[in-house]
What does this fold into?
Amino acid sequence: MSHQLRMREALELARQASKKGEVPVGAIIVRDGIVLAGAHNLREQSKDASAHAEMLAIRAACGRVGDWRLTNTTLYVTLEPCPMCAGAIVLSRISRVVYAASDPKSGAAGTLLNLLQDKRLNHQVEVVQGVLVQESVALLQSFFHERRL
It folds into this structure.
C-alpha cells in the first residue's frame, strides 16, 4: 500500500475529529498491510490532555496485538507528533512514522526537536514527512479559521 492511501485514511479520521469540535488530527497504525488501530484527537470530549490521536492509536494497537511492543509497524498521522506522542512512539518501538504537516510549535519529529531519531535513546524511528501535506494543512487551517469566527 502506498503512503498516500494510508494517509488518506488518517485524514478521514481527522475530518471526523473536526466534526466533533476536536483539532483535526488522525492516526492509524499498520503492520504487514493490516490496520491495527486508528484514532483521532479526543482531548475536548474526554477532557484528557493525553487523548491525542497517536496516543489513542498506540493504546488500541497494543491492546489488539497483546503487547506493548509495536515493532514492524508504521504510524500514519496527519500532524507531526508532539514530544508526548514522540516519546510514546519510541517507547512502543514503532518502526516508522509517516506524517503530513509539520508542527512548528511542538513538532518532535524534526521540526522543533527530533525525539524519534535521537541516538541517545534506545530506539530510533524512520521518519517520512510531507505526505499529503496540502490536504492536512487545509483541514487544520479551515478548522482554526472557523473557530476564530
